[in-house]
Amino acid sequence: MESLATALSAGPVVLDGGLATELAAAGHDLSDHLWSARLLHDQPEAIIAAHLAFLRAGAQVVITASYQATFEGLARAGFDDRAATTLLTRSVTLAREARQRVETAGPLWVAASVGPYGAMLADGSEYRGRYGLSVDELVRFHRRRMAVLAEAGADVLALETVPDVVEAEAMLRVVQESGTPAWLSYTIDGDRTRAGQPLEEAFRLAADVPEVIAVGVNCSDPGDVAHATAVAAEVTGKPVVAYPNSGEIWDATARTWTGEPGWGPEPVRTWIDAGARLVGGCCRVTPAQITDLSTHLRRR
């Protein structure tokens, strides 16, 4: 099968949308600190169904339900190392199973989600960064699960929702050790990472890492993406990945989403014009919206 890196050199590739959004819409309770990763154990068929919804909507890449699956987080939930390895492996297996159930004329890829250290804490730390850990400590945290996900047969590792250049440096070190293809995607606020570092500094870390096939942003406001995409393309010379949230804001007090969505085919076109080649959505982006995007790109 053609590699994702090769496909990106030929034109835009469509990512999926919010996996947890689709699972919640199907009625699954994601309030556990493991979030969607809990379903890897409890209801694996639900994960396949969510992947299928996006693939049938036109996504060419699906991201696994491993964002919040870590050895440490799973241990807190009562899973020993062997069980954790099984669940991490299963996240890739389920995505591959969904891919096999879809008839398509073109290739489809599986990206293994590697969420940040803060995702394991389940306290919003991935939107702040600066955990007080060294690069070496973060390398030790990420190394085992990244190895399991790569060995499970993922086409690429999605180093995603990274808030901090310190964590990015650690993740990139592991990628270089293993030689596994990956993309690096920060969560940002305006023209800086969530931890406050300039985007030029953040993206430059990946510029000379051959294993990194794309660099960009996710789980951010759509309005911040065009500038970040242009910076990433200029600083690294690599294809850019862009999959922000819908633009709505979660009101924790009212427990509801507020504001107007800013995600859609028209904004995505501006990201592509700025250098984005791997495009999709994160939280609150649905299969219907991915269909709109896929249809729009076919007409370009």
From TrEMBL:
Its EC number is 2.1.1.10. It comes from the Bacteria. Zn(2+) binds at residues 219, 282-283. Residues 1-297 form the Hcy-binding domain. It is an enzyme of class 2 (transferase). Coiled coil: none annotated. GO terms for molecular function: methyltransferase activity. Keywords: Metal-binding, Methyltransferase, Transferase, Zinc. The keyword RNA-binding does not apply. This is Homocysteine S-methyltransferase. Its cofactor is Zn(2+). It holds the Pfam family S-methyl_trans. InterPro entries: BHMT-like (IPR017226), HCY_dom (IPR003726), HCY_dom_sf (IPR036589), Hcy_S-methyltransferase (IPR051486). Transmembrane segments: none annotated. It comes from Actinoplanes sichuanensis. One of its GO terms (biological process) is methylation. The keyword 4Fe-4S does not apply. SUPFAM superfamilies: Homocysteine S-methyltransferase (SSF82282).
